[in-house]
Structures are given as structure tokens and as C-alpha cells.
Fold these 4 entries.
Entry 1:
Amino acid sequence: MLQRRSKLIYLLCLFSYALSAIAAKSYYDILQVPKGAPDDQIKRAYRKLALKYHPDKNQGNEEANKKFAEINNAYEVLSDNEKRGIYDRYGEEGLKQHAANGGRGGGGGMNIQDIFSQFFGGGGSMDEEEKIVKGDDVIVELEATLEDLYMGGTMKVWREKNVLKPAPGKRSCNCRNEVYHKQIGPGMFQQMTEQVCEKCPNVKYVREGYEVTVDIEKGMRDGEEVVFYEDGEPIIDGEPGDLKFRVRTAPHDVFRREGDDLHATVTITLVQALVGFEKTIKHLDDHLVEIGSKGIIKPKQVRKFKGEGMPLHLSNKKGDLYITFEVLFPTSLTEDQKTKVKAILG
């Protein structure tokens, strides 16, 4: 009976472990590479994803920060032959046991920033990275309406670029320097270097056009970029550059943006300035803001309406709205009007 109970407990533990293994996302899935991917493919995948989800480019975005940590954890394991072999055979549980037995465990051997800085030039060799040829980035200045920047929206942009297509014939590719020794005399050899190339199917550039949908996020500021990775100019035997849409605020008929604040000018009559008035202004999402006054308004007076400005990017907060009042004075007065004004104000 005791033996059967122990066996049952063992099977339950095994089943629980299997479920957790199925539910967990594999390191290969995180880096978006197949299980048998070679080292250089893993490095390229890490480079692209780490740049995309780096906290400096995703400030305040907790999902991106979590993704960045997952990417570094996966790369730390898959870039280490010993850890990768253990992971492929026994999964994360095997890495934990390996660490408990004195080895280096997955995700615990190196700081995230250390991995990133070593890979991108903060203390490690960049020889491998420098071999990756990359096409030109394409930067497009994109004028977004103030309404889209206030509420969020999308823009359709026509894009034309070079696309690599198959072409007749063969071409030299994957060129590399190979070292060999040439005998120049009895027992004497000279080291020589020769460039060796493979023969690959030929390719050519063809110009193609297509429509790109650009998502404008609420509160984006001038100079912020919407990046389409590897959608820039292609290059033979290398990675394409990136396509970057750099946001600019289009002029607006009513509002002027300064940072996260909005400014507008409203003209009122002299009578309104003296006795007060009721007035609303239509905001960017069509809600009405009450800007009336019961007191005296002086020319060029500025009133602040808290929380009625632009939304802060990746935040629930908003800036403020500043209204400057212009007082419209009459161009002339009759003698009778002058007498009445003196009687009232004199």
C-alpha cells in the first residue's frame, strides 16, 4: 500500500512538472528561433529583440521591460553550450538542478545589463557583431493631427522600397578569408591568406510599393518614433535596415501644443470682460470646456484649466490647458456713449 502511494505521488509530481513545462514558453520561442538554430542565428535574433524591447526605448512600459528580461534570460542560456545542452535535454528544471550542484543556473549567472552591454559593446568583444552587415534605416517625418495625438489613431502611408528578387545566374557570396601554408623551401613554409567565396543564386533589386499602417499613440511627442524593424532598405547578404516614422505635430486651427500642455486664444468683447460671460470651447475629442467668468478679465489675461491638456504618453495623467483672453475694444464711441461711460466708470 505504501509503495503504491509513493508511486502515485511520484506520478502526480511528474504530471505537474509536465504541465508547467507545457505552459512555460520555451527559450527558443522567446528568441523566435527554431530549436536547432546555430549560434549566429541566435545572436542575430537576440540583437534585434533586445534593441526593440530595451527599457530606454520603452520607458514606463512594464510589458516591454518584462519581455526584455525574458529575452536576456533566454539568450544567457542558449548562448552557453553547456547550459543549452542541459536545457535541451532536461528543460528549466535541469538548469536549476545543475545550479544547485555547483553549476551556473539559467537566468541567474549574469546581470541583464551585463549581457546587453557585453553584446553591444560595453565590455565584450564586438567582432561577431561587426560582421553583420545592415541596410540603411529609412526615416520618414510624419505629421500627425493634434486630434490623433490626443485620442490615438492610425495613419495610412504609401511606401516604396527596394525588394530582393531572384535573378538568373550565380554570384559570389559568404566571402571569407582563409589561411593556408605554402612551402617555399625544404622545411620552410609561408602563411598565406586567400579570400574564398561560395556561389549563391543571383538576386536583383526590384522597386515595390505597399501601404503601411502607422499607429499613433496618445500623447506621443515631437521626435518620438514608430519603428518597423527590418522594413528599411535591404542589403545583399545582410539584414535590412529599419523603417522609422518620426512624429511631428501638424498645425491646428484652435490649439497650440507645448510639451504636454495646450494653449488657445479666445476673443471676448469689452462688455464681457467687464461684466462677465458664459462660454464653452470645444476640445479635441469634442467635449466642452467651460471657460466663462463672473469677474473682470484683463487684456492678455491667462487662465489655467488643470487636466485639460494633452495626455502624457504611456500614462493616465494629462497636462493643462491655458486660455489667453483677447479683449475686443470698440473702434470709436459717440458723444452720448462717452457721457454714459463716464457716468458709470467715472
Entry 2:
Amino acid sequence: MDLRDGQTQPILDPNQPTHVYHLALDIGGSLAKIVYFTKDDDRLVDVEEGLSHRKALEKSNGSKQYPVLNGRLNFKKFETSKINDCLDFIKSMKLHIGGRQPQENPGSQPIVKATGGGAYKYADLFKERLGIILDKEDEMDCLVAGANFLLEVVHQEAFTYMGDQKQFVQIDKNDLYPYLLVNIGSGVGMIKVEGEGKFERVSGTSIGGGTFWGLGKLLTKCKSFDELLELSYRGNNRAVDMLVGDIYGGMDYAKIGLSSTAIASSFGKAISDNKEREDYKPEDIARSLLRMISNNIGQISYLNALRFGLKRIFFGGFFIRKHPFTMDTLSVAVNFWSKGEAQAMFLRHEGFLGAVGSFMSSDKHGLKELLANQVAQRSPRKLSFAVDKILHSLPDGEFNGDESIECSVYAA
């Protein structure tokens, strides 16, 4: 797959659903994510012109042409609590019609790859509403496969963020492993990744995105996760948190390296202040809550990286949402506890790791059959996935989630 990073487009219009193939889902506790491929046209790629496919072509048997599907890889997310919105979108776009048919019984219900707990919880609902069978893939397998794929082939996928400075990291896929993958969803999973298919879940915490959203909903009037994040951006956690300076009369605790602005106790000022909950601003509460959870995740992540001697920590999951304050807090926590020896890195497609991994599992069957039918003279042995490093992303490399990326699926 050739992902043309710099050419993101708005999600496709529901009035043009006729060339949809290979829907895949990741249904988590908080969000349901879908990835699907839409075909633009078919063509043959000549060896000389197909620079973006050079690695696959070099492994060929000398043939000059290969079946190619040009189109877009589309991304979309929904709140799991509103799973019917997801079902309605799939139905309106006719995404389920692109599901593969079991070879032994072509007339039976389409099968769609899915991962996450919701693949089990909502399996009957998808069957009843859309007439599709969810073919379940292991959640950890998909997370790691999606992260490995994106880090190995997508230009400017990883970046650092600290002190309002964003810097993309050039990943050498020959020197990618090992690394710690921290997936922040409703809860947090921490996975030591050592290679393709080689990984181990080493830790986690129940204090994650679901905690932020749940407590935030109880403490503020926010109706959505994004609304809560936006509220936190306007807040000042110092109005709620007890700082080192509050304890030491505005002074640092220099002996152990704590500045006066370091948080000594999250929400600690509520103990001593003669105030009721209604006296605190919702935005300050949201900011303190976000800081508390992000600091905790950052510290636990570093301790696990230290445990296994890992210098790279990649953070993924929709908790982050490219939110500057969240990324900065995670980075500062890792930098502080590691004394600058470890580095926090973030992923452009942070929330779609599992969905991408689920989509990639289609390589085992559906995409191969589809490509084989494009050109009769040559049936592909397998699919090859690569990216042309000549192609560059937009200057800021932003990715909002509900967008699509121009790509080509081709055979080698």
C-alpha cells in the first residue's frame, strides 16, 4: 500500500459508495474506529514509472506489469455509546457490501474484520442491522501490527512534542525495535514490541481516557470527550492542584530537584481551600484532571521502559487527540523521570492502530482475491505494502481522524 501522506481529503460523500472495499473495525469501550478502502480506478504500473512500488517490484519474477487498485484509505470514528451512529454510517455508505464472501458459500453473509471488545459485544447487532458477520481479530495483535506498519512505511508518522515544539522523527525501520507501545484508550495498555508478531503486554493502568471522560462528565457539564478536552485547554490547574511552592512558601525544593511549580498533590488545594465544588471553575477542574492522568501515564510508561531497557516510547490512542497540553505533559513526565534519557513520541494516526491492524489482516484473503481479478494474466502471490519516501506530508503533518489518505494497493 502506498500512502500518499500529504494529500488528505475530507471523508467521502455518501452519494458515492459504489467502489468501497474492505471495511475493518476496532470497537473499543469509548470509541468505535473504522478504516475502509475506496477504489478510484484500475491500472497497470510499469516498472520504470512505479517508483513508489520499487521494493515490491524488485522482488518480482521479471514481469513488467502488476495489478493495482488506486484509491483512498479512509478513517472515521464514533462514540461507542452511540454505536447506532456507526451502523447508520456504514449502511449509508454501503461499506458492508464490500465485505468478503466466504469462498465455500458465496451467497452467504459478508464477513468484515473487527477487533476490540465491541467486536464481541456488538456482533449480534451488526448481524441483525447490517447482515454482516464480524470476523474477530485479537486486539493486541492488531494494535502492534497497525503500529509496526505505520511506523515502518508512513512518512512523518512519529513526532515529539514538548514546550510547544513539534518535531518529526525519522524512523529507520531496520532500527525500530524494541520499543514500548503505550495505547491510551479507556484504560491503558503497555506493550513491549520486539518485532513483527513479537510482543508482550508488560503492564497497564485502569486510569486512562475513560477515567478522564468519566470523572470529567461528573465534575463538569461537558457532553463529549472533545468538549472536555477543549474546556481543559482554557483552564488553569494551579487553581486546583497543590504545588510544591504552596507547601514551601513559593520556594523550590531544590535538594530533590522539584521546582516550585511542580504538582505536589493533584486536586490538593480542595483540601485547604474554604470552597465548595461549585466555587471551582469547570475549566480548571478539567485541566487538573487531564494533567493528573497524563502525568500518571507518563511516569508508569517510563518505569516500564526502564524495566526493559527501552529508550523509545510511542504513545497512541484517542485519549491524546493531538492535544498540545496532553502531549507536553506526557513528554515532560517521561523526560523528568528518565533525566532526559528516554523520549516520548506520538503517532499521527494514534487512534487507528487497532483498526489499521484489523484492516491489514485482510491481506490474508479479500484484497488478494480482488487484485487477482484485476488482471487475468498474472495472479499475485501476495500483497505488498510500502510507501514512497519521496512523497511528503503537509507541512504540519496534521491528521484529524475523519479524513482519507490517497493510496495504492498493489501486488508483487
Entry 3:
Amino acid sequence: MGDKSMKAVMDQRKWHWLDYFLFFIRTIWITSNGYSIFISTTGSGKWVLLLWASCSYIIPHLFYRPGLIRFQYYLIAEVLLTGSLFIYLSSQYELSVTYSFLFVPILTVAYACQVKPLNWLGLSLLAGTWVGNLFTDMDIYALFVDTTIFYGIGFCLGRMTIVNNTNKDLIASIEEKNKDLEYYSKKIEELTIKEERNRVSQDLHDTVGHIFTSVITSLDALPFLYQADKKEAEKSIKEISDLARNGLNDVRKTIHHMSPTNHQTLVESVKELIADFMKHTSTDIQLNVEGDVTEVGERIKLAIIRCIQEGLTNAKKHGQASFIKINISFKQEELIVLIEDNGNGCNELNIGFGLRSMKDRISALAGTVNFYFELNNGMRITCNIPMAKEV
């Protein structure tokens, strides 16, 4: 972490339990020293020293308290008040007695001095106490060890506080990002459910529309067939019943997310679909297959089957077509499906649910669908599907 970011963390943080612990230690320290001043001094000087000691305790903490931490101002107040009081006491008493007065301030200063240039200033204060010891007859090594221990403890506690608060911020950030991930996960789940519902509705639309077009066309022709040949009419009734029954099974498979052509190739499935549609609608359908027939994935196969279903249904239901041509071209890079009819055509194409579903299916495979239409000249649908996009 950089010095500026570390300082920002320190300035913005609340008090840690170590802050309260050091505040408690400092309170005991000032109380003990205040009592020593009270019993060892007399006259007006006693109250001046007590006021001085109280200021050295209170004023630094005006800049170092919960909700407001300004280490620069705290350090200045600590050095000026506590340092000047120490110098005055040293001039009146033996240094060996007054030197212990610095231990707790050294501890708290080291705790606060964690970023540049404060840490260098804290070290300079520490060095200053060592230099001051050279001018006394005291045990320099003992004072060196005592000062270093207190400064080291304070500095280590300060680092612990920074690391602890940084980890808290990191954990809070991770929790916030987890909440965002949970939110987006729910959104993705909702979109997935919506997409699946649309897919099922498209399958049902294509399947049911195809079946009912065949059934209705057969039922419309049934009265005329019954008058002409009763046996043939009875046979046709059975075929219509079988068609409806097979359609019901197809719908059930769609509801259970099953492909109706799992065990057939694409061309076999298309041939079966065409034969069934021709049988019940008396529509002439021509199928042409070009190129080397290759196996395609279930997604592509199902999409093409549904698109051809919709194309046949649309040509018969809306275009009243009597002839439909289907061309499937297997190329190295793409699969092209052409559906062309001789129906009524139109001046303006109204893209309903079926044609929109066709576009959505092909677009999901990174393909394209184009519609060509002309009044009284039928309609042509071209689907281009990149073979490499199958996943």
C-alpha cells in the first residue's frame, strides 16, 4: 500500500481496540505522574505543573479521538507539550527519574507514526533521546534498550491496527461485491428462465401451428371425401386421429425440453416432416439437398426443423400455396436453407410470432434470416447458419 493511501486509511478509520487500550494506559500514566508531581512539589508551582500535565494529556487527544484523527496535529501537540514538560522536569530533577516520563508518549507516538514523513519524524525523536543520553552519566545501553522496546512495541501495534483496518475494508469490499454478484446472478437466472420460456413457447407455437394446419386442412376436405368414398374418408379420419395423437406426443416432448428427432439425421427428419405435411394438406413439396451431407448438432437440427415447420405452415395458412420448394445446401463454412412457395405473397410483410421466433432461433446460432416477398408471386425465406458456431 502506498504512503498516501495508507495515510488515508489511518485518517478515516475509527478507533480500534488498541486505541482504547493505549488511551487507558496513557490515563494511568498521567494519573501516576500527576500524583507524583502533587506529592513532590509545593506552592503555586504544583498547580502549574498539574495544569501543564493535564494539557499534555488532553490537548493531543483533541486531534486523536474517535471520529477525528489528525496525526500531524496530534504529533505537534505531543512534542510541544509533553516534550517541554519533560525538559522542565529534567532541569528540576534527576534525569534518571524523569526519563521514564517519556516511555508512554514514545509508545503512543510510535503507534501514530506509520506513514511518511511521520515515521521518519518519530525515528528522529527516538534518536534525539539517545543523543541526549550521551550527556549524562546514566547507563546509555539500558536507556537505549528501554526506549527501543517502547518505540518498537508502539510501532508494531500501529502496524497491526493498519493491517486490521485494511483487512476490514477489504472484507467489506468483498462482501459488497458478493452482494453485487448475487444480484447479477439473480438477474441472469431470471433472464435464463425468460429465455427458456420463450424457447418453449416458440417450440409449442411451431409444433402446434404445424399440426393444427394439417388437421384443419384435412378436416376441411373430409366432407367432400366422405361423399365420394366412405372407406377412404374413414381411412382419412384415422390418419387425422394419428396425426393429432403424434402431435400431442410432440408437444409433450417439447414441454419436457426434448428434441423430437434425437435419433434421426437432419435430412431424415426433414423428409419425415415434408411427407407428413404433404399427406394431410395435399401440398406439393420438393426437397433438394446439395453438397456433402454432414452431421449437425442438435441445436442446429432442431432450429432448422422448427424453421421449416414455420415456413410450411406460413406458406399454406397465409399464402394458400400449392407448391413449396425446400433446398438444403451443405457448405464447408455454412448451412443454407431455402424455403420458397408459389403462394399469394404480399406487399408488406407482417412479422408475427412465428417468423420472429424463426429469426430468434437462427440469430442464437449466429446466423441470419432473410425474407423475400412479392404480391401474387409467393415468398422466399433464406436461412444462413455458420457451421463453426455450433457449441
Entry 4:
Amino acid sequence: MENPEQWGGGGRRVVVIGGGVAGSFIAKSLQFHADVTLIDPKDYFEIPWASLRAMVEPSFAERSVIHHKDYLTNGHLIVSSAINITDTEVLTSEGRLVTYDYLVIATGHNDPSPKNRTEKLKQYQAENEKIKASQSILIIGGGPTGVELAGEIAVDFPEKKVTLVHNGSRLLEFIGPKASNKTLDWLRSKKVDMKLEQTVNLNNISDGSKTFITSAGETIKADCHFVCTGKPLGSAWLEGTVLKESLDSFGRLKVDENMRVKGRKNIFAIGDITDIKEIKQGYFAQKHALVAAKNLKLLMTGGKETKMAIYEPRSVKAIVSLGRQDAVAQFSFTTVIGLVPGFIKSRDLFVGKTRKLMGLDPNVVYS
């Protein structure tokens, strides 16, 4: 590595915390422009919108679960959690101090996962065996995750009884009612039993129990269940750090139009952890990473702040997969369901495209 003193714009030590969609993408983008260190509690990046397909077809995960070192060929990887930050350093859970000139926080949502890729693939295998061994399956949550999982199971295992319980009055509340209704009709056409405006209290369920009671007093019998409700933001660890004042009341980091944490010159935040008013989707997280990467390159080469790229929140554009061939898509001007949006997303769930973006062979399968 060259001596940082030779560079313009101060040093070029960039530390990225979080290796999800946004963090892995920015680390990859900057690795030949800076001395990049990625800190992530696991040794792989997972294409999140492919995870449900991997549950019904575990071999799919071979392409969608990617070792960080496969794309981060010129950076450093620390498999650990960040537990504190100061104005110049990041502290990891095993006590390492990592100095930064620029910091990018991309810790997204808190989703406990196995530490290594092999364990993650085994987890998919186990989930798949659980689905195969069950005659009846309960899915709790009618957001994109619950809907996509119900669709995947209903299409791949049409003989199984799938019940979906959702606390809202309609599915996919982040998109328009038309798309919600079309999705509901599609799931019903696949014999998914829908229970809206109900919840299931999981606290009083013993392990291995096959009887679930909804808030409306209905009894559901299911051999297994999957909880697909929202996950907490991965920001609780920031509450005792120099950025505690930068969190809003929801625990999101307040960012400016250049993707910098408000009031900070050299700290950026990207992905789900930001307070940008748009739905939290991997597609937008990648866009955040592109803008932040551009701005970091500019700052590291001594460019003017007035030339920094601006991120503009997008109107809702959502594609939710429904099994292998169909999908529901909402664009700013229309809502469509069926084969056309399905062709865009469901066949491959953008896995080939994302692998290509990460500089990898779109089709390679390795173990």
C-alpha cells in the first residue's frame, strides 16, 4: 500500500462497517481507490432478495451467498462486530482498534446470521428439509418477505397447506392498494389461506407445538412456522458512541443529500440505516452506495465539496416475486402482475446481475 501522505485530500483509510448490500458494494467500489477495511460479523455477503428462493431450492444459495474475499480482492476484511466509534477509530468486539480517515456505516437491519458461508448454506438446507417434512406451514407477516416466501412454497410445493397471518388490513402496505389486492388474489388462487388483521403471539408457544392461536381466537394447525415480520435496525450499538446525537427517534442515522451523516465531514451512512424517506430495498441501498462512493473518491483526491453528488429519493418502485414465474410490480405510473414483471425478477431474482455488479461470474457455482 502506498504511503497515505502521498495522497491529496488527507489520508485514504476508509473503514466500512456492515457487509450487506450497501456496505459490500461500496467496499468493492473503493478498494482500488483507497485503503479499505470492511468490518462485518460474517465472512460473506448475501443477496437478500434471493434468500427465500434458497429456502425452497438450497442450491440457489451457492450463487447468492458470496464470500467477501471473492469480490474484496484489494481490501482488508475483519470478521467481527463494531461496538464503538470515536472521531478517528472503530473498536471491534474482540478489542481491535481500526483507524479511519473516512467512515461508512452500513449496518442495515439486525439479522443474526451464521458467521461463515458454509454454516449459512447448511441453514438453508435445514430450512428446506423443514418445509419438505411439513404438510402445513404457517407464515407470520405479510410484508415482502412473508409474501415472497408464501409464493415460493405455494408454487414449489402445491400440495402443502400454507397459511399467512398478517396484522395489517392489506398485504404489502408499502405499495398501493391495487398491487396489494392483486397479490392477495394471486396467493388465494394458489390456495394460500389468508388471515388479515390478526397476529400470533409466539411467546407462549412451546418448541415443537403445532397449534397456534391468532388474536381473533382462531386456531391454526401447522407443522412448522416462519416469522417474517420486520427486523430491528442495526443501530443500537451507536447509542453510546460519538454519533448518538445523529440518530433520529426511530434509531436511523440522519444523513444529508450527499449521504454524509449530518454535521460530519468524513462519516457517511448508506442503506437501511439512513433516515431517507423511501422504502428500504436493496436496490436503493446500491444507489446510496454509488453516490457515497463517488463523493468519497472526490474528497480523497482533494476535490471541492460543492462538486459532490446528490442522492435524490425515488418514488416507490417495487417488484415482489410470486413464485418462479410471476411477480407483482408497482412503478410510478402503473401496477402489473404476472409474467412480465416475473420475467424481470422471479426467474433469477437479479442474482446474475448482482454478481456481475460485484465483478463475479454471474453463473458460477462453487462449494
